[in-house]
Amino acid sequence: MHERLDVLRLGYRKGRDPRITTHLALVSRAFGADGFMLSGDEDKELFSNLKSVSERFGGSLDTNHVKGMSTLKQHVASGGVAVHLTMYGEPYRKAIPSIRRDRPLMIIVGGAKVPGDVYKLCQHNVAVGNQPHSEVAALALFLEAWFGDSGSDKKFEDARLVIEGTNKGKIVHEIE
Ligand code: SAM
To answer: Most buried of the four, 1, 7, 144, 147, by CB within 10 Å?
Structure first.
């Protein structure tokens, strides 16, 4: 039993980054997060696409549109742990052992411009390498390190479609 883990994506712009934001949510679901929160523009279509993935492949990622900064403040004020993924942070393999696991965790990923307060509000500013790259890559690597192997090898009990990994071809089991 782990404490709740949510991913918060700041500053979503509907016309500009739906694809990368969908990928963030898919990584959140596949690698073990319980919820995905979006601040910025609302996007019902994006949430409905995610629901359809969970209906086929299982799991129940909670999706919510939120006011980013107040959600983050409330999370920290109520005793939660907040990890901000940023290239300016502390190396993630060094940081992870110091992050407490007995509290709900919120992982914050930025958009075009990250407000300076995010750095101050979060107890941990964590880097996946100190080079600029992608929020999707940073989130995936962080979650894999946080959960260990079980992160990227997650199984969903209520899946209708289960893929059996194979070197050649596609094997998909349809569960009755
Ligand atoms: N220019 C933005 C800023 O004000 O910092 C960052 C843009 S970057 C493409 C979007 C997000 O990717 C960042 O906010 C951060 O969450 C994530 N990111 C990019 N490189 C990272 C790294 N090396 N380590 C951790 N997160 C990273």
So the answer is: 7
Sequence ranges of the domains in the chain:
5-174
Identify the residue whose C-alpha is closest to ligand 1 atom 21. Answer: 87
- Residue 7's closest CA among 30, 161, 162? 30
Q: Is the CB of 116 under 6 A from ligand 1?
A: no
User: Is any atom of ligand 1 closer than 6 Å to the C-beta of 91?
Assistant: no
Tell me the C-alpha distance between 175 and 143, whole Å. 28
Tens-place pLDDT, residues 16-32: 889 999 999 999 999 99
Give the predicted TM-score (pTM) of the model: 0.94
Return the closest-CA partner of residue 86 out of 52, 45, 116: 116
* 5-174, CATH topology level: Alpha/beta knot (3.40.1280)
